[in-house]
Design goal:
The chain is an alpha/beta fold and 346 residues long. The chain is built from 14 helices and twelve strands. It is 42% helix and 16% strand. α8 packs parallel to α12.
Length: 346
């Protein structure tokens, strides 16, 4: 069976890496296109996954619309030669549209409710739309829900074993506390109208959190001069190891907040729109603490971070909470493999 995958974000590499590895061992073949976004290519190179560069994409609705035609044309040319049996992606309008015009099924996966424009660009062209069960919207008859989070597809204990060597790279002693801050670029279509954490509050957060241990920053956007010295410098494939051993994640990334839930690290997530999965991870498991981007909530979120860092609860307290998630949720990778195989002989 031939499968075409389009990747638009570093997280998508993680979503599909075990899916690709397992099915390649079963003699399935893949063609993969990928956008130049943050560390996407670094991850693919480190994982030795072959891919085709489809460019950087664009910012702004008008330029994104023009880029859509360019990306569609590139994917169509490549897919025409490859002759895939099926397309699968995390909410890629390009893969969905090309699949539709080639009369091939496209299986879309998403977990981002407020990506309204993006949803309109892929859902009409997709055979099925797969989402976590906590997803708050409905795609009608083509909607299939699975009881899990995307991040379990690569952070389930059967796939992920934390590498303690990351502590040496960070200059951290065993059991020494440290925090990771994550800031995003706010350039995605679903980020229009969002401003995120102010530079002043980024600086305030660092100044407060460093009282309790070292601070490292991962950022898609340009950092204020005062914060550049805190930029994390480890291989992109070791970020999850760092998150596992961290005492706190603070920032604007829903994906990283969810990753920390699976890894047993408390996280603080700021976003006006929120996510169904981070809401559930707060209400049901107590591992994510959600705030809006308002200046009042930014202040409250920093205070919450201080509270977590001041608390004497050991890392075992948080790791025990994450075990409940693994016990209750299914493995998305296996779910996707079983789902795709239904189309193998169609």
């Amino acid at each position: 069976m031939k499968i075409f995958i389009d990747l638009g974000h570093p997280a998508h590499v993680h979503y599909f890496k075990n899916f690709i590895r397992i099915l390649e061992e079963e003699k399935f073949s893949f063609m993969i296109t990928a956008r130049q976004k943050d560390v996407t290519f670094n991850l693919l190179d480190e994982l030795k996954i072959n891919y085709i560069d489809r460019g950087k994409g664009e910012s702004g609705l008008a330029r994104k619309f023009i880029y859509m035609f360019k990306a569609d044309f590139l994917i169509f040319k490549k897919a025409k030669k490859f002759k895939p049996d099926i397309f699968i992606s995390f909410a890629s309008p390009y893969a969905a549209q090309v699949a539709y015009f080639m009369n091939k099924p496209h299986i879309a996966i998403t977990d981002t409710e407020h990506a309204t424009i993006g949803n309109l660009a892929f859902s009409p062209f997709s055979k099925k739309v797969l989402t976590p069960s906590c997803y708050k919207k409905n795609f009608g008859k083509k909607h299939v829900r699975f009881d899990s989070y995307m991040e379990i597809s690569y952070l389930h204990p059967k796939y992920f074993k934390p590498n303690i060597d990351v502590l040496n790279l960070l200059g951290i002693k065993n059991n020494e506390r440290f925090s990771i801050l994550r800031f995003v670029s706010w350039q995605a279509t679903h980020d229009i109208g969002h401003k995120g954490i102010s530079n002043n509050n980024k600086i305030n957060a660092v100044n407060e959190f460093k009282k309790y241990g070292k601070v490292f920053i991962s950022s898609e956007s340009e950092l204020p001069e005062k914060l550049k010295k805190y930029k994390i410098n480890i291989p992109s494939t070791m970020m999850h190891d760092a998150l596992f051993f961290a005492s706190l994640l603070y920032g604007e990334s829903a994906t990283m907040a969810s990753e920390c839930s699976i890894l047993g690290t408390p996280s603080i997530f700021l976003d006006n729109s929120g996510r169904g999965y981070t809401d559930e991870q707060q209400k049901k498991y107590g591992l994510v603490f959600n705030f809006t981007e308002s200046l009042i909530d930014q202040k409250k979120s920093i205070e919450k971070g201080i509270e977590i860092l001041q608390n004497n609860k050991s890392s075992d307290f948080w790791k025990e909470k994450s075990k409940k998630i693994i016990e209750e949720k299914i493995d998305p990778t296996q779910f996707f493999i079983d789902f795709i195989k239904k189309y193998e002989n169609k």
